[in-house]
Amino acid sequence: MKVIGWDIGGANVKAALLTCDREKIVGFQTATRSFEVWRGKERLPLTLRDLQEALGQADAMAVTMTAEISDAFRNKREGIRFVLDCVKETFPGVPLYAIDLDGRVIALDGEPQDLLAFAATNWIAEGLMVAEWYPNCLLLDVGSTTTDLIPLLQGEIATRGKTDTDRLISGELVYTGILRTPVGAIVSQVPVRGLMCRVSPELFAVTADVYLILGDLTPDDYTCETPDQRGKTRVFAYERLARTVCADATILTEEELVHIARYIHEKQTQQIVEAMMQVISRIEGGAALPVITTGAGEFLAKRCARRLNLQTKSVRELFGTDSVLLTPCLAAAYLLAKFLGKRSAVSDQPSAR
Q1: What is the mean pLDDT of residues 59-84?
Q2: What is the rounded CA–CA span in Å between residue 304 and residue 280?
Q3: Can you list the pairs that 187-196 forms with residues at least 24 positions away whose Cβ atoms lie under 8 Å?
Q4: Closest Cα to residue 30, out of 12, 17, 41?
């Protein structure tokens, strides 16, 4: 059996193809494409088809998404319906399932009763999968745009919130990432020549520029669009960062810009560490939980865990390097394979008559 798990976001579409023998994974492939839904949602079917062709045919598919929050849609229900309809219409002969907010695998063979049950469930999928290997931990996924903090206790998801809003309140979702976050969303001022300088809130630079300057990312890792549509090199990153203080790279030296980048990194680290402290402070023995790291910003997740003297393990220890970048879609495929395997096992049982 081959299944594809989808993670359809507002800026990227990710997919994983699992080859399974009942519930046992015997191989997997992954693929991702940059896709900014607000720039042309009508191109989503082409992106889906492109990824499927890169991976191969599947017997069934499971969907998670975060694209529904995009302002390309008037509300979340409209976004969810659009995404599900796109997948159905693009792959009409393939059984389609979705992960809901209760962690269930739901067959989409009719009109869903509650579309909001499928909003932003990618973190639930990865939490359920990781819990099978690490039943007691804090799963920390630092991505390109957001950071998910998912406490797992006794093999179950132990979050206080389920919706994005509730998770923002509970500290389980931090809207900060290592690629697309504007500098002005992290700092209101930065150090310049021994003084604190207020920053411009214009979209002059993003965190991808910060981490490119600091050497944590390579140009190939810079997968989002640059704010100025110029190159994804350190030279251009210096130029973009200089504009955040209304200067340019002929006014500020590279050393001065490195100081600014380090300060932004420190403040972003503090944002995530504060959320970690909020989450683990309500869990008995939370300060001793290991942190399971994943996401495009796994390097930052590990640094945050070290700030709190917490032990870390990587999702890559389970599945390999690709799993770190694409954990939610891999998890969606895994949960679907497990669901179909169990259903097949039941159907294979002899009749009780």
Answers
A1: 97
A2: 13
A3: 187/263, 187/264, 187/267, 190/244, 190/245, 190/260, 190/263, 190/264, 191/259, 191/260, 191/263, 192/245, 192/252, 192/256, 192/260, 193/256
A4: 17
d(CA 228, CA 317): 38
Q: In whole angstroms, what is the distance from residue 91 CA to residue 4 CA?
A: 12
End-to-end CA distance of the chain: 29
3-state SS, residue 188: coil
Which domains are present in the chain? 2-158+283-347 (3.30.420.40), 183-272 (3.30.420.190)
Neighbouring C-beta atoms of residue 142, cutoff 10 Å: 26
Mean pLDDT of the chain: 93
pLDDT class of 23 with cuts at 50, 70, 90: low
Which residue type, as a one-letter code, is found at position 295? G
Using an 8 Å Cβ cutoff, are 177 and 222 in contact?
A: no
pTM of the model: 0.94
What is the distance between the alpha carbons of residues 243 and 257, in angstroms, rounded to a whole number? Answer: 11
pLDDT tens string 131-162: 999 999 999 999 999 999 999 999 999 999 99
Closest CA to 44 of 32, 35, 52: 35
Residue given tokens 């870390």 in the structure block: 312
Average pLDDT over every residue of 316-335: 87
Q: How far apart are CA 176 and CA 236, in angstroms?
A: 22
